[in-house]
Write a structure and sequence with these properties.
With 228 residues, this protein is of the alpha+beta class. The chain contains 7 helices and 8 strands, in the order βββααββαβαβααβα. The strands form 3 sheets. The protein has a 3-stranded antiparallel sheet, with no helix packed on it. Strands 6-7-8 form a 3-stranded mixed sheet, covered by helices on one side. A two-stranded antiparallel ribbon has the order 4-5. α4 (145-155) links the parallel β6 and β7. It is globular and about 60 Å long.
Length: 228
């Protein structure tokens, strides 16, 4: 989250970092929420458990069940990052019963990214004292329709996909264009932004909060697994 020229210390478990500086203009700062494992969890299902042959198959497997079956996957493989910062945490799969199958594991793995994103979004709102009306997404996981809809549902906000889905690379190219004079300024760049797809929340409020409460409970089960 861009905080402008003001360095905002986080009280909610985020990082204060430099966002950018163009030429001799003032430095702009940001609040950053770092998550250790998201897309890598799908790779783990593929490589370590062999539940899928390729990453794109995870959505089909997750859609083989109607919901997560009460299963929650906390991917604290190397501890928990923002907003918890628990290096002694380790990954847990909570809520297993004999009813659970590989479809529920796949769905729980996808949902873990959405839950962790809500953790960070709520921390950002707490620090910035601004209510976010939507979230813009990019990267490899945006091709997963199930995840994008669930992300919107669990956030209760719009999830917006831009036409150019590799935002980091695009930003680097824009910065180079500004430095060389290829672009006239940031207003020209803002005019280039266009959305490709928007997901809107469809989940009932009671269901949303019940799922998130269970996620928060599962997160606490991962705490203090190792002894330092």
């Amino acid at each position: 989250m861009n905080t402008g020229e003001r360095r905002v210390p986080s009280a909610a478990g985020l990082l204060t970092t430099v966002a950018y500086q163009f030429g001799k203009s003032p430095v702009h700062f940001a609040l950053e929420g770092s998550i250790a494992i998201s897309g890598a969890l799908v790779q783990w299902l593929r490589d370590n458990l062999g539940l899928i042959a390729k990453s794109t198959e995870v959505e089909t497997l997750a859609r083989s069940v109607e919901d997560n079956g009460g299963v929650y996957f906390v991917p604290a493989f190397s501890g928990l990052y923002a907003p918890y910062w628990k290096d002694s945490a380790r990954g847990v799969i909570a809520g297993l019963t004999r009813y659970a199958n590989k479809g529920h594991l796949a769905r729980a793995a996808l949902e873990a990214t959405a839950y962790q994103t809500r953790d960070v979004v709520e921390a950002m709102e707490q620090d910035a004292r601004i209510e976010l009306k939507g979230v813009r997404v990019d990267g490899g996981m945006v091709g997963n329709e199930l995840l994008m809809q669930f992300q919107s549902d669990i956030l209760n906000r719009e999830v917006v996909l831009p036409v150019v889905q590799e935002t980091t690379a695009l930003g680097a190219a824009y910065a180079a264009g500004l430095a060389t004079g290829f672009y006239s300024g940031t207003e020209e760049l803002r005019a280039k932004w266009k959305s490709d797809r928007v997901w809107k929340p469809q989940m009932a409020s009671a269901d949303r909060e019940k799922l998130y409460r269970s996620w928060k409970k599962a997160v606490t089960r991962s705490f203090d697994w190792t002894e330092n």
